[in-house]
Amino acid sequence: MGKIIVGTDKAPAAIGPYSQGVKANGFIFFSGQIPLDPSSGEVVKGDISIQTELVMNNIEALLVAAGSGFEDIVKTTIFLTDLADFSVVNGIYGKRFTCEPPARSTVEVKALPRGVNIEIEVIALQGC
User: Fold this and answer.
1) What are the chain's domains?
2) Residue 63, Ramachandran bin (φ over 0: left; ψ between -120 and 50: alpha; else beta)
3) For every one of its 128 residues, what pLDDT tens digit does the chain have, with 9 covering 90 and above?
């Protein structure tokens, strides 16, 4: 089975030579999501809570487009420019995983694309 590209206009378009997501061997690998407005492609201004909500909404749009949901996520990686934001991000993130949350890594980084403060990438199982 080859790879199948996943995409939707309900999440931000790729801003480089990559796909929003790729299905392969029963998994879906999603590119990292930053707080971009899907309709304008612009960074949404606001504090880390506003940015995190938008990132999670963009992830949800990609999951739906791929026929999956948050319950199918097996691994996430959160990139933050300031680990002091962790508790706020963790609270918002945790609301999407009511049981059996995925494995996760959280990493502080010096900078992220477009000067944003958060990026989250996701690996999920293909939904049934």
Assistant:
1) 4-125 (3.30.1330.40)
2) alpha
3) 689 999 999 999 988 899 999 999 999 999 999 999 999 999 998 999 999 999 999 999 999 999 999 999 999 999 999 999 999 999 999 999 988 999 999 999 999 999 999 999 999 999 65
